[in-house]
Amino acid sequence: MNGAALPAHSGAGGRGRAEAPEIVIVGGGFAGCAAAIALAGKGRKVVLIEAAPAIPNLFRAEKLAGDQLPLLEELGLLDDFKAASTPVEEFVNIRGRHIVDISRQLQLNMLYRDMIKVLRKRIPAQVTLRYDRVEDIVTGEDRQRVTLAGGETIEPRLVVLATGHGEALRRKLRLKRARAHAQQTISVAFTLTPPVDGFMFQSLTAYGESQGDRVDYISLFPIGADMRANLFLFSDIEDRRLKAIEERGMSALLELLPGLRPWVGDCGWVGDFASFPVELCNVENVVRPGLVVIGDAFRTSCPAVGTGLSCALVDVVCLRDLVGSWFATPGMGAEKIAAFYGAPRKMARDFSTHALAFRRRRAVADESRAGEFRQAAYYLARGLRDRLRRFAS
Asked: What DSSP assignment string belongs to 247-301?
């Protein structure tokens, strides 16, 4: 039965029974690959299962910054990402025709598929990377049963589910997905080629210009020789403005954000338009024997806030720090698994990422005069802080 408890010490069944590893990770995206590297670094015997060897050209995260950099350093991966990315350190932030402030921090820019390439290169030899499809997972107090598409079964002590936004295995495991916010975030990506005289900024963020228009911001940042654009709206995939940008390119974008015009000049439009809707969701009833759910498979985050990879990396670090004590004693009962979801570092990151998303949505979507005043005051305060900072330096 799908998602049922597996009796302790049961046989593998099926065909082609392989020697059981300690941990099976299902999903070879960012969270799954990072977990395989971290757990193997602790001496665990790991099998990482991904559906196909080809890395799909998905539009997901395209920047690494903030707490993601020290987390990558903690996992010994930061230098790899620095070598493969386009770094920037200065950001011009505008709203309409006005500069809000100029901020400085290190940001590493790269396409999501290139992030996965970096991680797959770092997977150590002791990790078995298998390209196969997982049909079913059955959990138990001692051993878990993972059934592959061809009928082969693997019985690890622990299964890590890192399948991102995929629903099939979550449904089979009867993991209930609860919506945390009714409004979607729509992420849009496309590429610009430089104007004749080049761009006059390293990286630029332009915030929505009309209060209540549900446009959070657009971020322009270099990846190689091109300028990548990520636009974030609190809307739905049927928003006519998205269709207009896809069909008419820069003219429609400048209708949405006219303050961009003097900054982008006669730049070119490559036309590789991609969009991705995200709902804020939590997965409930996750505390069960033998199974840990990490990254977006556990809790989605608002892409406009940019903490999705932070949550995944914190999950990996917390799991890495717990598995030693888990494997030191028999069994893999729910009391062990509960320690992961209750880890203070994980709980703090999960809470803050949704709290920040709720605040941003309220601020951007508020059409009242009071909301407009609060936003104007917020950007004014940012500008004053920036001027004081520059004066003091």
From this structure: HHTHHHHHHH-GGGHHHHTT-EE----EEEEE--EEE-S---TTEEE-GGGTB--
CB 289, CB 332: distance < 8 Å:
yes
Angle 249-255-258 (CA atoms, 0-180°, nearest 5)? 110
For residue 222, the surrounding DSSP H or E stretch is: strand 215-223
β-pair partners for 12: none
Name the amino acid, one letter, at 152: E
- Unique residue bearing structure tokens 């028999």: 330
Residue 387: exposure state from Cβ atoms within 10 A (0-12, 13-18, ≥19): exposed
pLDDT in tens, 353-376: 999 999 999 999 999 999 999 999
Domains in the chain and their CATH numbers? 5-62+112-180+280-359 (3.50.50.60), 78-111+182-278 (3.30.9.90)
Round to whole Å and give the CA distance between 326 and 337: 9
CB 123 within 8 A of CB 37: yes
**Spatial distance between the Cα atoms of 360 and 111, rounded to a whole number of angstroms:** 25
In this structure, the strands spanning 46-50 and 63-65 are unpaired
- Asked if residue 229 has pLDDT above 70, the reply is yes
Per-residue model confidence as pLDDT tens digits over 73-95: 999 999 999 999 999 999 999 99
Question: Between β-strands 203-207 and 158-161, what pairing exists: parallel, antiparallel or unpaired?
Answer: unpaired
Q: How many CB atoms lie within 10 A of CB 389?
A: 13
Q: In sequence order, which ranges of the chain are alpha helices (DSSP H)?
A: 30-41, 68-74, 78-84, 112-122, 168-172, 240-248, 250-256, 261-264, 308-327, 334-341, 344-365, 369-392
The number of beta carbons lying within 10 Å of the beta carbon of residue 271 is 9
Contact 278, 300 (CB under 8 A): yes
Q: Residues of the chain with pLDDT > 70: what percent? A: 95
Q: Which run of H or E residues covers position 371?
A: helix 369-392
Q: Confidence band (pLDDT; 50, 70, 90) for 393?
A: confident
> Rounded CA gap, 327 and 334, in Å?
14
- For the chain, the C-alpha Rg in angstroms (whole number) is 23
pTM attached to this predicted model: 0.93
Compute CA distances 62 → 14, 19, 110, 284, whole Å.
Answer: 41, 38, 5, 28
Other C-beta atoms within 10 Å of 162: how many? 30
